[in-house]
Specification:
The chain is an all-alpha fold. It has 9 helices and no strands.
Length: 216
């Protein structure tokens, strides 16, 4: 841990551990990073944008939303609805790849011009998976912001710094693991299994969020 004063170290550690516990679940953002890493396309750019987005969300939550008591119901429901639509569409795309085996074929062949993402496409995709991800808004922006209130000031800022550090540790570690294991993971069966898992994950998350909107 960072050399903080004895009084502030618990706030930093609490933010770090809570951030890691939220981000370690295989959510849409992590699944996208995995896919970009396995494709060998703009992985570190994607990771950098995910970290930057997380840091911005954490800053907003700790210094803003947490102090205001979170998002209003109207804004929250609108964000969740947009997130559900995004998850359904992306899940359908992943399922189509799973059924057709397109991902497996791509892993064996040299990437064609159509399969290669441009830098602009990679930036837009990373931002979409960060800013349209309802779990980022509900967990990071609201839960972390609310938890930071328990530490007062300046403890809440230190708590936020710990949470941001957790995001950096996770995504950099994920990138390093993909660099080390990437060649072993670029097998047709792994690609197809990942697409099937992503489809189930996206649709399952959309279902849970939809039931929550309906109060079920």
């Amino acid at each position: 841990m960072l050399p903080l004063s004895h009084a502030l170290a618990p706030a930093f550690n609490a933010g770090l551990l809570l951030s890691l516990s939220l981000i370690m679940a295989l959510g849409p953002q992590n699944a996208h990073v995995l896919r970009m890493g396995l494709r060998g396309q703009h992985m570190w750019l994607t990771i950098g944008l995910c970290i930057l987005s997380d840091v911005l969300f954490i800053g907003m939550s700790v210094l803003g939303l947490g102090q205001l008591g979170g998002l209003s119901d109207t804004i929250r429901n609108a964000l969740v609805g947009a997130g559900i639509l995004f998850l359904l569409v992306y899940g359908a795309q992943a399922f189509a790849r799973f059924r057709s085996g397109a991902a497996a074929a791509m892993s064996q062949a040299n990437a064609s011009d159509e399969a290669v993402m441009t830098r602009r496409q990679a930036i837009l995709a990373a931002l979409a998976f960060s800013w349209l991800n309802p779990h980022v808004w509900l967990d990071t922006a609201v839960l972390l912001g609310t938890a930071s209130l328990a530490w007062g000031q300046p403890g809440n800022a230190v708590f936020g710094a710990g949470a941001a550090t957790g995001s950096v540790i996770w995504f950099v570690g994920l990138g390093v693991c993909l660099l080390c294991l990437g060649p072993r993971l670029r097998q047709p069966g792994v690609w197809r299994a990942l697409d099937g898992l992503v489809a189930l994950l996206m649709w399952g998350t959309a279902l849970v969020l939809g039931l929550g909107l309906l109060g079920l």
